Amino acid sequence: MSPRTKFAMAGRNTCPTSPSKSKAFQTAIERIGIAVKYERNAEIYAEDDPADSLYQVIRGTVRSYKLLDDGRRQIGAFYFPGDIFGLEAGAGHTFAAETIVDSKILVIRRIPFVALASRDNNVAHQLWTLSATEVRRAQDHATVLIMNAQERVIGFLHEMARRSPAEAEIDLPMSRGDIADYLGLTVETVSRTFKQLERSASIALPTSRHIVLRDHAAFT
Amino acid sequence: MSPRTKFAMAGRNTCPTSPSKSKAFQTAIERIGIAVKYERNAEIYAEDDPADSLYQVIRGTVRSYKLLDDGRRQIGAFYFPGDIFGLEAGAGHTFAAETIVDSKILVIRRIPFVALASRDNNVAHQLWTLSATEVRRAQDHATVLIMNAQERVIGFLHEMARRSPAEAEIDLPMSRGDIADYLGLTVETVSRTFKQLERSASIALPTSRHIVLRDHAAFT
DNA sequence: CGACCATTTGATATGGATCAAGCGATGTGG
DNA sequence: CCACATCGCTTGATCCATATCAAATGGTCG
């Protein structure tokens, strides 16, 4: 693989996730929303910003995060094309959101969206489903966080593989630092754990951002 | 305090949480649901059971949990009077639920409830709010899980204090083992951390299940 | 009183953090 | 176009927090 290919692949074009979102719903939000381009590491919204829009990734990758009192950063989620984020029941965002790579984001104003939901039962149901998806994501996140370093990293790879277009082939748009802050580990530990998994032939690492899952059984 | 008082207090009678649930909503679910008594350590539903009801704690305490492949138990949440749990967007429960102490639970069948939501915008909105509350809870849980043992325990005490009728006085219905499985620590570490906090005069431990928060500033 | 379970306490082992340094790729300015 | 600065990643050495193993204590109930 050429040195540049990996970045091209990091901006995914497919939408392998979110099977439960109906076509009608997708059409509706595309009508209400407007597509906006962000370059990499651009802020979409900050923590505590008023939550007057929600967002769907069209192209690229987004991380949500919050800064703890002592300066540590916790990454709450990564969002890929098709994923919807930033929907809040309260008035403000509880996490900030930034692009990881150059991205295109559908920005949907909350007021017309919620208004639509109160007219259209299908949309209201999707609204609930979106929250429920987010609950599940956060619970799964908590589940990997009670485990040891190797299990956390494997859990992370699972999650990425599930959302990757090519089942056993992963292109990571995010840095080791992002992964570390998502998993509650240090960059050094993430790096060493990848190396261990490579030595035990569970994965191959052609480049630091491209991972091939071997022994896919152990990863299910 | 007499040896028995703590258990009497563990069954809380107040509903300090859930300020966003409307009176009309509460009336509606009370009309649809039926109250059921469970004795302590009784199963309400198992992991993967069909999710055809949701539940509100009337009296007592509930833990939700899942068993990991290697037998470890992860506790996902504790539910106190007023809390609603077991609402799923999918077909099955992703966590099991058990009472911790003798409890009274309002059991609400899902079908009439969802039907009501599709007729009544207010209920539909509450449905969304419930999910959003659960998202927040799970995110907060993930946030404490990236921290060290002392911070996890303090985070846990915060959470309990917030939901306790008496601000700086906590009666724990759950065992050290439950706390450990919620925080991803061992019972020994939980016990030692409580002791440390007591030695540093951050808390007092009149009995192992009763905690008084001193220096409430450090706990905010 | 005696058995059982929850909790505490102690001794030791170890996984991951921390501190430190090197390496390779990328981008920038001369 | 090359030299250099920067950034992301890796690797090594050491330290410390928490797990693990083991046993004692204490409260509760029959």
List the helices and strands and how they pair.
Two copies of one chain form a homodimer.
Chain A: H1 5-10, H2 23-32, E1 34-38, E2 43-45, E3 53-59, E4 62-67, E5 73-79, E6 84-85, E7 96-99, E8 103-109, H3 110-119, H4 121-145, H5 149-163, E9 169-171, H6 176-183, H7 187-199, E10 203-207, E11 210-213
Antiparallel strand pairs in A: 1-8, 2-7, 3-6, 3-8, 4-5, 4-7, 9-11, 10-11
The structure holds a DNA duplex (30 and 30 nucleotides).
Written description of the protein model:
- The structure is a homodimer of 220-residue chains.
- The first copy, chain A, has 220 residues and is α+β, with helices and mostly antiparallel strands.
- The first copy, chain A, is built from seven helices and eleven strands.
- A four-stranded antiparallel beta sheet of chain A has the order 1-8-3-6. Chain A has a four-stranded antiparallel beta sheet with strand order 2-7-4-5. Chain A has a three-stranded antiparallel beta sheet with strand order 9-11-10.
- In chain A, a hairpin with a 2-residue loop joins strand 10 (203-207) and strand 11 (210-213).
- In chain A, helix 3 packs across helix 4 and helix 6 (176-183) crosses helix 7 (187-199).
- The radius of gyration of chain A is 18 Å and the shape is globular.
- The interface between A and B is medium-sized, with 34 and 34 residues.
- The structure holds a DNA duplex (30 and 30 nucleotides).
In summary, what is this structure?
Two copies of one chain form a homodimer. By secondary structure, chain A is of the alpha+beta class. Chain A has helices at residues 5-10, 23-32, 110-119, 121-145, 149-163, 176-183, 187-199, and strands at 34-38, 43-45, 53-59, 62-67, 73-79, 84-85, 96-99, 103-109, 169-171, 203-207, 210-213.
